[in-house]
Design goal:
The chain is of the alpha+beta class. 19% of the residues lie in helices and 40% in strands. Strands 1, 2, 3, 4, 5, 6, 7, 8, 9 and 10 form a 10-stranded antiparallel sheet that branches. The longest helix has 15 residues, at 99-113.
């Protein structure tokens, strides 16, 4: 995207963008409430099978937003002006319910974040999650829905000696290979 890049700069390589998608610990998820107002929240993700995956409680605002409008944006990067790479991934969130896929994803959460989920009934279960109304110190199992966001568009914005803006489009559900 030369209109938004320093003159003569090179596009960000997909490999550099993929490293950030795989390694970033925090992403910001943007969804739309049923009344059209935006909702943005930080969360953790794992990259698998050419898509970002995240989990959330089934009654949380983001899960309720996605039930009516699966379109969303996930962003990550840095807050520095003079260096870094920001990535914006657009797509539709699809709930994952197959236990075999969820087990694979739970393994990735464990490896990346040391966060261990049980898998049952098409969801993650966190036996250490506090539940509203519990007595102080009590722990109860928390159900979390898992979503997959296959990118339709990815933007990478590099800063440093040169400013770069690079865009990739993935049409017809084309897979983004890791």
């Amino acid at each position: 995207m030369t209109d938004f890049s320093s003159p003569g700069s090179e596009p960000t390589p997909w490999a550099d963008t993929l490293v950030l998608l795989q390694g970033a610990e925090i992403f910001w998820l943007s969804t739309v409430r049923p009344d059209g107002r935006p909702h943005v929240t930080p969360l953790i993700t794992v990259w698998a099978d050419g898509a970002l995956h995240f989990c959330t409680g089934r009654t949380e605002r983001k899960a309720r937003n996605l039930a009516t409008n699966p379109g969303c944006v996930l962003t990550t990067g840095t807050n520095l002006m003079s260096e870094g790479l920001d990535v914006v991934l657009e797509g539709a969130a699809v709930r994952i319910t197959e236990d075999h896929t969820l087990r694979r994803l739970a393994d990735r959460w464990a490896c990346k974040y040391d966060w261990h989920f049980e898998v049952r009934d098409g969801a993650f279960w966190d036996s250490e999650a506090p539940t509203g109304g519990s007595e102080p110190g009590e722990q109860a199992a928390g159900e979390a829905y898992v979503f997959r966001v296959q990118p339709t568009t990815v933007h990478a914005y590099g800063r440093g000696e040169d400013y770069t803006a690079t865009r990739w489009r993935f049409e017809d559900g084309a897979s983004v290979k890791a």
